[in-house]
Write a structure and sequence with these properties.
The structure holds two protein chains of two kinds. By secondary structure, chain A is mainly alpha-helical. Helix content of chain A is 75%, strand content 0%. Chain A contains five helices and no strands. In chain A, helix 3 packs across helix 5. The mean pLDDT of chain A is 90. Chain B has one domain: 3 helical TM bundles of succinate and fumarate reductases, CATH 1.20.1300. Chain B is mainly α. Chain B is built from four helices and two strands; from the N terminus they run E-E-H-H-H-H. The chains are: A mainly alpha, B mainly alpha. Chains A and B meet through helix 2, helix 3, helix 4 and helix 5 of A and strand 2, helix 1, helix 2, helix 3 and helix 4 of B.
Chain lengths: 134, 143
């Protein structure tokens, strides 16, 4: 290192040019905050899910249908599905953005994951609703 | 600053002053510690649990399809390979659950001191194992 260690960069680029294309300011915390809100909601919901799994271990179809026909169980399962899959979507997005560097690949993977997560979430929710109303 | 790559090592601190960024540890030669291990396991279990939701969806869709499909899925889950996969799922779930609480307490600004952080890390690992064992004990003794 030279004697002068204070860092400096000499790039022919204006501050405006550096900021362009990075999105609107002051919205960065929304994603972070939503991830925390869903994680707090998932604390009781995942404990409920674990207990449900223990209750329904080895259950036959009639027992499963009777469980989901109970409104509280259907509501709690729908809450679990909504909260869990949105938490998953945000978590996977952060992981992809951290590790997939190439822009085209990153965008493609984000779209595939988003589509897949929505597909799973809707399949789960429709199944719970069908059991609840049949 | 002659080398153009050096520009990547320059950032601004919260006061807007230009500073030289610290270098990230090279993972290949970096001794694993409870801090880094618990952090990366939070991500690994998170991604694994995301994939594991396919099991939950298969279970619910089979139940909505009818008796035949549901008994097939229940039989797969009850087989030894099914039980092994579900064991891994519960371990990942309880780890992510416990370490998630740890992350939330950090978000609230608590537990940042190094001894506290090491203690909570060991606590999370222990609690995840105990909860997993308790879950399977209940599943096999009661159910």
């Amino acid at each position: 290192m030279s004697k002068d260690t204070s860092p400096s960069v000499h790039i022919m680029r204006s501050p405006l040019g550096r900021a362009r294309g990075l999105g609107a300011a002051k919205h960065g915390a929304a994603h972070w905050w939503a991830e925390r809100v869903t994680s707090v909601a998932l604390l009781p919901l995942s404990l409920y899910f674990v207990v449900s799994v223990l209750i329904l271990k080895g259950a036959d179809h009639a027992a499963m249908a009777a469980y989901m026909a109970e409104p509280w169980n259907a509501v709690l399962f729908l809450l679990l599905i909504g909260t869990m899959f949105s938490h998953i979507l945000m978590g996977l997005q952060v992981v992809i953005e951290d590790y997939v560097r190439e822009e085209g690949k990153r965008l493609a993977l984000l779209l595939v994951v988003k589509g897949g997560v929505w597909f799973l979430a809707l399949a789960a929710a429709v199944s719970v609703l069908k059991l609840a109303f049949s | 600053m002659k080398d153009v790559r050096e520009a990547l090592m320059v950032g601004r601190n919260s006061e807007g002053k230009l500073v030289r960024r610290p270098l990230s540890p090279h993972l290949q030669v970096y001794k694993p510690q409870i801090s880094s291990a618990t952090s990366i396991f939070h991500r690994i279990t998170g991604v694994a649990l995301s994939g594991g939701t396919i099991l939950l969806v298969a279970w619910l869709v089979a139940a909505a399809s009818g008796d035949g499909a549901f008994s097939v899925v229940q039989a797969i889950f009850a087989s030894w390979i099914g039980q092994l996969v579900l064991f891994g799922f519960t371990l990942a779930l309880f780890y992510h659950f416990c370490n998630g609480i740890r992350h939330l307490s950090w978000d609230a600004g608590k537990g940042f001191e190094l001894p506290d952080m090491h203690r909570s890390g060991r606590l999370v690992i222990g609690a995840a194992i105990i909860l997993t064992v308790a879950f399977w004990a209940v599943a096999y003794i009661v159910g």
